[in-house]
Amino acid sequence: MKLSIPGRASATAVVAAAALLTGGSIAGAAPAPEAVAAAAPDIPVANVKAHLAQLQSIATANGGNRAHGRAGYKASLDYVKAKLDAAGFTTTVQQFTSGGRTGYNLIADWPGGDTGRVVMAGSHLDSVTAGPGINDNGSGSAAVLETALAVARSSYQPTKHLRFAWWGAEELGMVGSRYYVNSLTTANRSKISGYLNFDMIGSPNPGYFVYDDDPAIEKTFKTYFTGIGVATEIETEGDGRSDHAPFKNAGIPVGGLFSGADYIKTSAQAAKWGGTAGKAFDACYHSSCDTSSNINDTALNRNADALAYAVWDLSA
Fold first, then answer.
1. What is the β-pairing status of strands 254-258 and 90-98?
2. Which of 195, 204, 265 is nearest to 237 (CA)?
3. pLDDT digits (tens, 9 = 90+) for 109-150
4. Cys-Cys link to 31, which of 35, 97, 251, 293 (CB 3.0-4.6 A)?
């Protein structure tokens, strides 16, 4: 997540049809909250962490970071692209320049669905130069990747068209995502029914924050967390600081999740979510210690499952 002012999100929701995706239903039974949450595919946190381990290895082999214009960023993009290509996605690498260095966005389209109604999920893949960026934003990038791979494993055929994205140079001011949005024609912008953003979703002292820009997308995420008995709060720390901002500024509905950066967890939040009051949600934010040990597995697991829930629900 980029330093500076805050960022939020939203889009459009539908909360049904997911039972069809699991191939069954519970006849005559009122769905319990657990049944609602279970309607989305489970995203194995072990798989997400395996991607994070690869991103850590890439950073370690490339000067300790995965920053824009550095070898670690391109190696990270190549890793994600290879997984998507093997799974049957149509991938596109979009090139841009920032600060005299070449940057890259990766766009992955799942074949099928109504291309006049596109649901996008994305995350920034770059780190700061100070460290490997495993929570910021390996966590979002790995969860979006594993959700895309879950789409392929299930041979999901959504009504809407699914598109996933990994952005470059977010840490320099959402450069990659802004370049993508600005490159779209007015007609193609209007085809995006919602963009979901995932930037820092495995913070070690986590909170559960939901963007509140679009009421329908916000409701979708809140429905998931209510179903698993986890309270949420409206996201305010990241307003304007992540890749949903260019989409929102272009009039596209946006939404997303966040587990906290350098703001301090209050006593009330610690009572609600656990963790340590009086300490940052992520004390390693933008630091060299943002490594593979800087992840809360429970938060990563819950947020990855919420991501998949929203993707399935909004594209059904």
1. unpaired
2. 265
3. 999 999 999 999 999 999 999 999 999 999 999 999 999 999
4. 35
Three-state secondary-structure class, residue 232? coil
Answer yes or no: are the C-beta atoms of 177 and 247 closer than 8 Å: yes
d(CA 150, CA 195) in angstroms, rounded, equals: 19
Reduced to 3 states (helix: H, G, I; strand: E, B; else coil), residue 185 is: coil
Among candidates 234, 290, 297, 310, which has minimal Cα distance to 13? 310
Decide if 170 is catalytic. Answer: yes
Active-site hit among 146, 170, 171, 218: 170
- Residue 14: how many other CB atoms lie within 10 Å: 15
Name the residue with higher pLDDT: 214 or 1: 214
* Helix, strand, coil percent content, the chain, rounded in steps of 5: 40, 20, 40
* 201, 261 Cβ separation under 8 angstroms: no
Cβ 291 vs Cβ 56: under 8 Å: yes
Question: pLDDT digits over 280-297, tens only?
Answer: 999 999 999 999 999 999
Confirm whether pTM is higher than 0.85.
yes
Pairing assessment for the beta strands 209-210 and 254-258 based on DSSP bridges: antiparallel
Q: Alpha carbon of 184 to those of 89, 110, 114, 144: distances in Å?
A: 20, 19, 18, 22
